[in-house]
Amino acid sequence: MTLEEIRSNNRVQLALGLLSGIAFGFLLQKGGVTNYATILGQLLLTDFTVVKVMLSAILVGMLGIYALKAAGLVRLHTKPGSVGATVIGGLIFGAGFALLGYCPGTAAAATGTGALDALVGMAGIVLGAGLFARLYPALDRTILNRGTFPEGIIPEIIGVRPGIVVAVVAVLIAGILYALAMFGL
How do residues 151-167 score in pLDDT, each as one tens digit? Predict the structure, then answer.
């Protein structure tokens, strides 16, 4: 099967999405970030497991996408954002995180491990998504499109080669991870 056939085959795309989701949940669980005590420790700045897992994921993902894009195996499809959508999304995410103690990814993975609190949270996520979908037309007209951001990836927006941004961010992330290890955090 060619790359174009894979891209145009909805069943293959769904299967790849399912497999990616299972792998993501498995890695979240193995990384220890589906444990409520770990997340609470991060919020209290006593356990930096979440930061280390997320920075490692960002680093691997960034390098992987950059390599795949350079090889012509992926195309990026960016969409413009806005201050309004970012603020609304941040408020919804923050409220959910404050009430539940999980983000959507860790809630789904914790549900998979049998955490009943996360299962209740997943029900809340579904209800919240339904409410947002119901309110979307009004929000889209009034709030979500306020203060649009430019469309594109960071290197395009700031006018530098992608490899430079990737290298700088990779060094910064490696430095933060090294500092966390040095301080035993």
Answer: 888 888 888 998 999 99
Q: What φ, ψ does residue 148 adopt, rounded to 5°?
A: -70, 145
DSSP summary character for residue 183? T
The number of distinct structural domains making up the chain is 3
CA 71 to the chain's CA centroid: 24
Overall residue count recorded for the chain in this entry: 185
Mean of the per-residue pLDDT values for the chain?
88
Q: Which residues of 24-53 are buried (b: 16+ CB within 10 A; e: fewer)?
A: ebeebbebebbbeebbeebeeeebbbbbbb
Q: What is the pTM of this model?
A: 0.75
The C-alpha atoms of residue 144 and residue 147 are separated, in whole angstroms, by 9
Claim to verify: residue 179 and residue 134 sit in the same structural domain? no
Q: DSSP code of 148? A: B
Question: Strand, coil or helix: what is 82?
Answer: strand
